Amino acid sequence: EPSAGGGINPFSPAFPHHSCGAFVASGIDSVAKCAQAVAAASWPSDPYLAWSDLSLFCFRCTEAQAAAAPNGVEEPGYDIFKVGPLLPQVQSWSPAPPPPSGAAGGGWHGR
Questions:
Q1: What sign does the dihedral 21-49-31-74 (CA atoms) show?
Q2: Among 10, 43, 59, 61, which residue's Cβ finds the most Cβ atoms within 10 Å?
Q3: Ramachandran region of residue 21, left (φ > 0), alpha (ψ -120 to 50) or beta?
Q4: How far apart are CA 50 and CA 70, in angstroms?
Q5: pLDDT in tens, 24-52
Q6: In angstroms, rounded to a whole number, what is the distance separating the alpha carbons of residues 72 and 34?
Q7: CA torsion through residues 45, 47, 50, 53, sign
Q8: Is the whole model's pTM more than 0.70, yes or no?
Q9: Please, are residues 47 and 87 in contact by the beta-carbon 8 Å criterion?
C-alpha cells in the first residue's frame, strides 16, 4: 500500500528477514549508512543491500541474489532493501562538501 507521500517508503524492506550477497562493512548502525557504503562500493551493479540491526553488518546484493533470498531460510534481524530509492534520502542528509582547497581566505601565499 503506498504511503501518504504517494510513493513507496524507501525504508520499507523489499524482502524482510532475509540476507544476501557479499559483505561490505561492519559496525553500520543504520540502513542509510549501509546504502552509502554499498553506493560507494558497487552501486548500481549491486542494486540491493542486506542490513542487520542485530549484527550491524552490511551486505551488497545483485538483483538475482535479492530475488533468490526469500526462497532460503529466514534470517531474523536482516532485511533486504533496494539501494536506489534510499540514495536521494541519504544524500539529502549528507553535509555539503568542503570548498576546494585555497578557496577560503583567497590571499596570495608568497614568501
A1: negative
A2: 61
A3: left
A4: 12
A5: 999 999 999 999 999 999 999 999 999 99
A6: 22
A7: positive
A8: yes
A9: no
